Amino acid sequence: MLEGKKIVVGVTGGIAAYKAVELVSHLRAARAAVKVVLTRAAQEFIQPLTLRVVAENEVYTGLFGGAEVLPHIRLALENDLLVIYPATANFIGQAAWGLAPDLLSTLLLAFQGPVVICPAMNVRMYTNAAVRENLRRLQERGYIVVPPETGRLACGDVGTGRLPPPAVVAEVIQGALVPKDLTGLTLLVTAGPTREPLDPVRYITNRSSGKMGYAVARAARDRGARVVLISGPTALPEPPGISLIRVNTALAMREEVWKHFDAADVVVMCAAVSDYRPKQVSPEKMKKGPPEITVEFVQNPDILAELGERKRRQLLVGFAAETGNVLAYARAKLEAKNLDLVVANDVRQEGAGFEADTNLVWLVFRDGRFLELPRMDKYQVAHRLLDAILGIWKGGYRE
Ligand code: CTP
To answer: Phi/psi zone of residue 353: left (φ > 0), alpha (ψ -120 to 50 degrees), beta?
Structure first.
């Protein structure tokens, strides 16, 4: 999603400045065009040459004396986004007060696109009232401030002030660059497997990793939607800017979905809900006994089918994980559950379905049309799905 985007990475003079090399490398790997501006203090920590090699592009070190005199206006006009990684307390203070003693601060004043600021400093400085107030000013002005992480700091202290890793910041950058075309909509997304207990230590589950559902939630958030994510157990980190509700069982997921259904405009049921649960849940850990045992299962409610019966204005999206006859089964599900769209995939194909980072899907519409998407990253699949959802929504969709 960052392909072809023009990004300026501004580096200020803190010990975390060396991490800018990793961010630039990350952005280059995503095929963004990157230019780097170093403050004088940043050059104490890192050589311009290193960044020139990694960025495969120009590095700017001052207003004067470089190949180009006063490059700030051109840099401001020609680039899509400015990220300050890391931003020192001094730089944040200058920015808050509109001071422009060097190239980076001058560029910040001239820049009219999205600006992402990543503070990194000692915890005592970060919690200082002046720094807090300056950061609040920047946020009020519309700059995106990525909060530092908590952990061991360069000086040996433990606290909040660590620069977030490149992947976290790249996601924020990506989000800042997508159009906010879902503003005003509320999406309810479910993700991950459910866990159906047999006893206090054992359960039945499935291979869903939650990656697709989390990608839909993140993409919708990036496009300005309010997102409620109801997630079964996954190993994924909590996505910022999303209301995350964690559940275990299908029954608990159903309860949370119902709680949030009325306020939702769009429901995307990505979760791999267990169709059955053990009939008896032993309150004690079951002991080893006879060589063969039989477990009885009862059916779980089909959450999506229930929503299909009750929906009013909501647009309902289901997922269909199949192992053959994909389109036919997907269409049958769409009909049976009264859905507006089904995302179908053949989980036997490589790079599709459970656990993979990519997916290979068909979007199956109510009017019989379908769209086969090439294999792509789940976040990109999510955007294509949201394009389709928006299309249906704008087409005056109402029951
Ligand atoms: N789903 C649900 N509640 C269930 C089972 C499934 O809400 N108890 C939802 C899933 O989140 C998914 C869709 O229904 O969006 C399709 O689920 P799937 O398990 O593929 O379909 P089933 O209807 O269970 O049919 P089958 O297992 O026979 O393929």
So the answer is: left
Query: For residues 293 and 275, is the Cβ–Cβ distance under 8 A?
Result: no
Residue 118 Cα to ligand 1 midpoint, Å, equals 42
Burial of 49 (0-12, 13-18, 19+ CB in 10 A): exposed
Q: How far is residue 197's CA from residue 204's CA, in Å, rounded to a whole number?
A: 6
Among protein residues, the one with the nearest Cα to ligand 1's atom 27 is 275
Task: For residue 9, give the amino acid letter.
Answer: V
pTM: predicted TM-score of the whole model, two decimal places: 0.85
Query: Whose C-alpha lies nearest to ligand 1, atom 9?
Result: 304
Q: Quick one: which of 27, 156, 42, 124 has its CA closest to 83?
A: 27
Phi, psi of 38 (to 5 degrees): -110, 135
Distance 318 CA to ligand 1 centre (A): 8
Measured in Å, residue 277 CA sits from the centre of ligand 1 at 14
pLDDT digits (tens, 9 = 90+) for 344-371: 988 888 777 777 888 889 999 999 899 9
- Of 130, 155, 158, 263, which is the active-site residue? 155
Q: What is the pLDDT of residues 246-301, one digit of tens each?
A: 999 999 999 999 999 999 999 999 999 999 999 999 999 999 999 999 999 999 99
Determine whether 118 is an active site residue.
no
Q: Is the CB of 104 under 6 A from ligand 1?
A: no
